């Protein structure tokens, strides 16, 4: 709390009537954005829902980019001695495929869910720091574009594999600028994730609706909260590693250069201290999504809620103690290997708890196999396969055989694709009506699902076999006669089936949108779901809740619709229409849009190009960042000129009525989002 | 017009009390929690840099060039460490001053803090140039690369802190920083103290403990 | 988490504080130490620093085996004094301390494990 003892005596904020209020202007460079329709609104928005949508759309764009890279890899490997890509380009393509899918697809897609759903699930009007939220998105996007710009201006992509081991990452083996773009691009994206992590943790801890205790938060919010803590503590580690790599390459330091006494193992340690929590950063959001979908379509509360939460927390903790299992063949010594082997086996326990709880949730439930449910159930199954092959890596002697073979590739795709991507796809189908106000067609959705599941298993299942046969990963081709031909061809066919399923998905979005005009709207709660986001209209109004709900327990929204009668039967006590809010509130005070997050974010890639090509470029970049910070700090969170009743979607026909529509606004009734003016202040 | 006046007042009011319908769930300030989370994260950043230095501190490279521990000037560094330590005191006195509404005292202590920080940075610049004269260069060997990176990162943090404090000073001078903004000062102060405790760690582990 | 209990009680106290700004300010002044207390802490810090620097002059007094442990101990005490007094962890909501100490302990754990893995675990 602000120590405000002086307010009492001086009351400096109260102005005599007739005195023009002192309004701080942001340097006069950009006028304060007023929202409204069109692209300008998206550039300046601080609305967590719009930012979530932007994260989602950008993630899907990079899904296509990474997918094309994957198809190129599979084309190259479809037959022996493939000639689609040269060895050099192949190295770049598989590196950029991994980096794109991890940092530019799954993480931002999870961020899309986090941004959109956390405030809704805890009953808040926005995140704790709306402008910082916009900043996260724009920084992430500028980092993502910066990273991929190396194809055009950097002489090709990074070619050191996504974990970029030294000495492959050094100038001797990677003389193009690809690795520089990798290091700086990930540093920029890391800033975005760090800011976002801090923002969302504060939101979860501090912005909950009355009665929303920590242990009444939906499992998805819990898993996302744990993810943010992992990001908070893991990102600085990779930041150190990337800085050292950048200094090595650009300024001639000797951190990872064995000739000068540097130690390549240091990179491996730093990378995997970050990299293993990163695995859980990828998978926990999908676990959360699955934990929302399965209870809804089983018509049962989640089995063992507290076990679900605590196993998530346990995974979060134990995820820090297993990193060296990625390094069993690096020569870290038998004691290290034994210790990390043991801790790795232990981490299977909380994961197993989760899988059992999902199955127990479905047990005896009235299951509806919607597309979302199919994706969720398949996530449980596919992740279990990936988890089991993971246990075989925990056994160091077996791992020694499997390291750097396709068995590893099979394992982590079952975890990341089978666990992460399938789960998040289910989430897209589940929350689509909430976000966009129309349902995705179920028939095409199921086609999408089956194609993806079959294609996925055809692609990555055979890689187990190939790996155990001894096929190395990251080798650009293979000769005929090793018995690799058949399964490689199968995997390539499978990868194109996955591509087809993604096409079906995009087609489904487009067709369903067109068909929705002739269908009844889905209403606030199309799935008969359980958490708070389903009590507001679809799509969600800008102010989220007409009235912030008071929460009495877990699955609050369900309990507003149903009760248990004396015989123990579930009976409906209220229709969705009467229990839900209709989004009609006006005059809700929302944080004002701002251009400064975008300006600040655009300065960072300039600094990045400057570091690589010409240090003078850092000057305008740095000036931009600094100027934007000051303008940001001086700009009040709430625009004094803003019309509080402004609703872009429905009640402002002309969209640019500044000040004129203020009549009838009542500030008192529906107060503000709690954002302190010092937000982002001088930092 | 009067309507607008009223609105502005309400808006300012909102932002100062960070009011919402129900107040923050834990009863604590969002911004302060965010700063503490950031500092928790910074622990792992400096931990990584310090570990890198500790791993490399005796590695002279193939040319057997001098390493930082050969040329440490402990009495000099002790003085600059002491200066930074005392800047924590002046920072906390600045906060105490603004909390009780003493703007003049606040500005004096804030300026003193910035000056002490500036002296520390000046000392670091002097130390770096002295090292370079004695042939301890950034690219010579892993030990010196790690040393300059660690102390350089810390120096950048201190410099950013000075910029932050001077911004507060200017804001206070212009009358924009009033006693009810004491939390802004407190948060900048948290950052400043953190940078100081990192140096407490570095001073002992890097400088005082013999190789 | 055990944190929930403490948090909820904290909420209770803070919401009463919120109710009345005047009371809030009064509570604040009561909670925060005086300038003189800060100066005393600084004097202790200065004294510890003096001892630390004194260890450097081995010709005056040789600490022998005790040198490294006592240096580390003095460092921890200084660290603790600044964090608890100057950063107000002693007086503030315990959630701040939890976030910070969480990061600190995690950093110590993973980096000590890494560094020892280079030396002793092989």
What does this structure look like?
- The complex is a heterotrimer of chains A (683), B (211) and C (122).
- Chain A has 683 residues and is mainly alpha-helical.
- Helix content of chain A is 59%, strand content 1%.
- Chain A has a two-stranded antiparallel sheet.
- In chain A, a hairpin with a 5-residue loop joins β1 (562-564) and β2.
- The longest helix of chain A has 35 residues, at 87-121.
- Chain A is globular, with a radius of gyration of 26 Å.
- Chain B is elongated and about 60 Å long.
- Chain B has 211 residues and is mainly α.
- Residues 1-21 of chain B have low confidence and may be disordered.
- Chain B starts with a helix and ends with a helix.
- Chain B has 7 helices and no strands.
- With 122 residues, chain C is an all-alpha fold.
- Chain C has 2 domains: 3-91; 92-122.
- In chain C, 79% of the residues lie in helices and 0% in strands.
- Chain C contains 5 helices and no strands.
- The model of chain C is unreliable at 1-30 (pLDDT under 50).
- Chains in contact: A-B, A-C, B-C.
- At the B-C interface, α2, α4 and α7 of B face α1, α3, α4 and α5 of C.
């Amino acid at each position: 709390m602000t120590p405000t003892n002086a307010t009492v005596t001086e009351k400096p904020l109260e102005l005599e009537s007739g005195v023009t209020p002192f309004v701080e202007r942001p340097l006069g460079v950009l006028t304060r954005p007023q929202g409204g329709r069109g692209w300008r609104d998206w550039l300046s928005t601080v609305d967590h829902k719009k930012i979530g949508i932007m994260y989602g759309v950008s993630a899907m764009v990079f899904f296509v980019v990474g997918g094309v890279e994957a198809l190129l890899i599979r084309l190259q490997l479809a037959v022996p001695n493939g000639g689609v890509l040269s060895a050099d380009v192949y190295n770049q393509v598989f590196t950029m495929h991994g980096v794109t899918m991890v940092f530019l697809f799954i993480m931002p897609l999870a961020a899309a869910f986090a941004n959109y759903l956390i405030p809704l699930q805890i009953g808040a009007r926005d995140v704790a720091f709306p402008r910082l939220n916009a900043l996260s998105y724009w920084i992430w996007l500028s980092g993502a574009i910066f990273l991929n710009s190396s194809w055009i201006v950097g002489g090709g992509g990074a070619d050191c594999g996504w974990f970029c081991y030294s000495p492959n990452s050094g100038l001797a083996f990677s003389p193009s600028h690809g690795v520089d773009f990798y290091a700086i691009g990930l540093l920029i994206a890391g800033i975005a994730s760090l800011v976002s992590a801090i923002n969302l943790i504060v939101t979860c801890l501090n912005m909950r609706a009355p009665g929303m205790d920590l242990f009444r938060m939906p499992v998805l919010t819990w898993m996302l909260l744990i993810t943010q803590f992992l990001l908070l503590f893991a990102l600085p580690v990779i930041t150190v590693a990337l800085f050292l790599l950048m200094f090595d390459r650009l300024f001639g330091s000797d951190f990872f250069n064995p000739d000068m006494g540097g130690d390549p193992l240091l990179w491996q340690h730093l990378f995997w201290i970050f990299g293993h929590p990163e695995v859980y950063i990828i998978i926990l959001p999908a676990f959360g999504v699955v934990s929302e979908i399965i209870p809804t379509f089983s018509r049962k509360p989640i089995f063992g809620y507290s076990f679900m939460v605590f196993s998530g927390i346990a995974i979060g903790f134990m995820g820090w103690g297993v990193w060296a299992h990625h390094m069993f063949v690096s020569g870290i010594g038998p004691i290290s290997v034994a210790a990390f082997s043991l801790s790795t086996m232990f981490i299977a326990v909380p994961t197993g708890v989760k899988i059992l709880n999902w199955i127990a949730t479905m047990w005896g439930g009235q299951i509806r196999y919607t597309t979302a449910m199919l994706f969720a159930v398949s996530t449980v199954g596919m992740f279990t396969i990936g988890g089991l092959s993971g246990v075989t890596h925990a056994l160091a002697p077996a791992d020694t055989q499997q390291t750097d073979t396709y068995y590893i590739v099979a394992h982590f795709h079952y975890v990341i694709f089978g666990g992460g991507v399938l789960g998040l796809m289910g989430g897209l189908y589940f929350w689509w009506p909430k976000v966009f106000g129309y349902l995705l067609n179920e028939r095409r959705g199921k086609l999408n699902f089956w194609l993806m599941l079959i294609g996925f298993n055809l692609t990555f299942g055979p890689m187990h076999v190939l790996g155990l046969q001894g096929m190395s990963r990251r080798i650009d081709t293979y000769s005929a006669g090793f018995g690799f031909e058949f399964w490689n061809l199968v995997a390539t066919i499978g990868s194109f089936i996955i591509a087809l399923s993604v096409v079906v998905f995009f087609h489904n979005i487009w067709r369903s949108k067109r068909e929705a005009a002739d269908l009844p709207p889905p209403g606030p709660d199309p799935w008969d779901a359980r958490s708070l986001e389903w009590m507001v209209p679809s799509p969600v109004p800008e102010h989220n809740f007409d009235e912030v709900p008071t929460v009495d327990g877990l699955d609050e929204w369900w309990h507003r619709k149903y009760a248990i009668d004396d015989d123990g039967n579930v009976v409906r006590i209220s229709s969705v229409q009467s229990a839900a809010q209709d989004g009609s509130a006006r005059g809700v005070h929302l944080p004002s849009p701002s251009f400064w997050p975008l300006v600040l974010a655009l300065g960072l890639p300039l600094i990045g190009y400057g570091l690589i090509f010409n240090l003078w470029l850092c000057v305008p970049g740095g000036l931009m960042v600094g100027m934007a910070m000051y303008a940001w700090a001086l700009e009040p969170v709430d625009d004094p000129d803003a019309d509080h009743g402004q609703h872009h979607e429905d009640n402002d026909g002309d969209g640019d009525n500044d000040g004129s529509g203020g009549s009838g606004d009542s500030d008192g009734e529906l107060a503000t989002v709690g954002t302190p003016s010092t937000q982002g202040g001088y930092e | 017009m009067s309507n607008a006046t009223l609105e502005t007042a309400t808006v300012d009011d909102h932002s100062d009390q960070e009011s919402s319908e129900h107040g923050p769930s834990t009863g604590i300030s969002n911004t302060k929690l965010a700063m503490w989370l950031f500092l928790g994260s910074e622990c792992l950043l400096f931990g990584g840099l310090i570990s890198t230095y500790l791993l490399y501190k005796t590695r002279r490279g193939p040319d057997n060039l001098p390493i930082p521990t050969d040329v440490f000037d402990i009495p000099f560094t002790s003085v600059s460490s002491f200066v930074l330590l005392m800047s924590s005191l002046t920072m906390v006195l600045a906060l105490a001053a603004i909390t009780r509404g003493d703007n003049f005292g606040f500005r004096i202590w804030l300026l003193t803090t910035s000056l002490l920080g500036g002296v520390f940075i000046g000392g670091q610049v002097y130390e770096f140039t002295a090292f370079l004269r004695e042939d301890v260069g950034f690219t010579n060997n892993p030990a010196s690369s790690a040393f300059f990176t660690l102390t350089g990162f810390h120096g950048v943090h201190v410099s950013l802190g000075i910029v932050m404090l001077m911004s507060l000073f200017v804001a206070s001078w212009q009358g924009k920083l009033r006693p009810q903004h004491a939390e802004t000062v407190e948060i900048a102060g948290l950052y400043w103290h953190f940078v100081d405790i990192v140096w407490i760690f570095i001073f002992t582990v890097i400088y005082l403990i013999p190789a | 988490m055990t944190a929930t209990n403490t948090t909820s009680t904290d909420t209770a106290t803070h919401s009463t504080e919120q109710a009345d700004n005047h009371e809030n300010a009064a509570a604040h002044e009561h909670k925060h130490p005086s300038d003189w207390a800060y100066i005393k802490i600084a004097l202790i810090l200065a004294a510890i620093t003096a001892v630390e620097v004194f260890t450097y002059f081995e010709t005056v007094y040789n600490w022998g085996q005790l040198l490294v442990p006592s240096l580390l101990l003095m460092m921890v005490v200084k660290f603790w004094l600044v964090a608890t007094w100057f950063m107000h962890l002693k007086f503030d909501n315990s959630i701040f301390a939890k976030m910070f100490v969480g990061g600190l302990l995690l950093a110590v754990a993973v980096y000590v494990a890494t560094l020892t893995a280079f030396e002793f675990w092989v």
